[in-house]
Design brief:
The structure is a single chain. By secondary structure, the protein is α/β, with parallel strands linked by helices. It is 37% helix and 10% strand. The protein has a seven-stranded mixed β-sheet, sandwiched between helices. Helix 6 packs across helix 8. The radius of gyration is 22 Å and the shape is globular.
Length: 335
């Protein structure tokens, strides 16, 4: 085991050390070489060292050097050394974090991280939070809480009775809404095409003067960082209109919301703390490894209620994670 792990560490370090010299996108020969991985299912076990060598020598050259400084495609970035090293240690621990009793260490670390993120982003004290696989699942979790809260106002328990026959909800988005939020709406049964679109200005910011009528059965979705321009919706004015109507405000802050942590750019997020829920992704600017989305909700009972799970064998008193995120830390679809 030690020799195998040392071999993996050496190969990983060598890969990172050569990022500056390798092409950002792999050459055609390296991509064509991936065909060597498409072999029949082995009838028996393979030598771990040979499998590692195959991955390194065949798949490695065909990777995109997105962790390097010459990559400018998408909002991707790479992991900081400390975060990468911690991820390796966490993989070795192999913890199931559904309940505190399954891993007190992992549960504590998650709670500390969420508390820090709440403070870093300037969110209201007492917010519920959870770590999920990415921004799509963060959006889905927050919107599930919104769906639950608004339908309960109408006397409908969506977790118990489903959506068939439920009162209609209105979802309002900008003309430049990100596809991950639309995907979350589709998964929740709220529809990708049933949304009401609001015109934007020349930078892709939602226009407050163009908002449709809002009410207490409306979810208004804002963007903290337009993916095309980086612009921020005028949150303070939009939140004020939504709150006056009793609407739920959700913020898709996949990458731009991190401006709240910067003294130079925090003014861009003015008013966003007035929302009801927020979604973001720690890989974007905190440079931690992938599968690092985070969801926050001003109304803890709604997020917990939307994500609660139970079974006869859950004979534990602390269902912290199992109540908040979809089936705890299972690998769920992410952007």
């Amino acid at each position: 085991m030690r020799d195998l792990l040392n071999d993996a560490a050496e190969r990983a370090a060598r890969y990172l050390e050569t990022l500056g010299a390798r092409p950002v996108f792999p050459p055609p020969a390296a991509v064509a070489g991936l065909a060597a991985l498409d072999e029949p299912l082995p009838e028996g076990p393979s030598d771990p060292a040979q499998t590692l060598r195959l991955l390194d020598e065949v798949a490695g050259p065909a990777t995109v050097a997105s962790a390097g400084g010459r990559y400018f495609g998408f909002v991707t970035g790479g992991s900081l050394p400390a975060a990468l090293a911690a991820s390796i240690l966490a993989a070795a621990w192999d913890q199931n974090t559904a309940f505190r009793v399954m891993s007190p260490a992992a549960a504590t670390l998650e709670e500390v991280a969420l508390n820090w993120l709440t403070e870093l982003l300037g969110l209201p004290a007492g917010c519920a939070g959870a770590l999920v696989t990415g921004a799509t699942m963060a959006n889905l979790s927050a919107l599930a809480a919104a769906r639950r809260a608004l339908l309960l106002r109408c006397g409908w328990d969506v977790e118990h009775d489903g959506l068939v026959g439920a009162p209609a909800l209105t979802v309002v988005v900008s003309d430049e809404v990100h596809v991950s939020l639309l995907k979350a709406l589709g998964l929740l049964g709220l529809g990708r095409e049933r949304v009401v679109h609001v015109p934007v200005d020349g930078q892709g910011r939602m226009r407050p003067d163009a908002l449709p009528p809002l009410d207490d059965a409306t979810i208004l979705c804002l963007q903290a960082g337009n993916v095309n321009t980086g612009a921020f919706d005028p949150a303070r004015e939009l939140c004020a209109q939504a709150q006056a109507a009793g609407a739920w405000v959700h913020v898709d802050g996949a990458f731009g919301f991190w401006a709240a942590a910067s003294p130079a750019y925090a003014q861009l997020t003015d008013g966003y703390a007035e929302a009801d829920s927020w979604a973001t992704d720690s890989h974007k600017y905190l440079n931690v490894p992938y599968d690092s989305g985070a969801v926050f909700c001003r109304h803890p009972e709604q997020l917990r209620g939307a994500m609660r799970t139970g079974a006869a064998y859950f004979q534990v008193t602390d269902q912290r994670a199992g109540e908040v995120v979809p089936l705890a830390r299972q690998r769920l679809p992410c952007a």
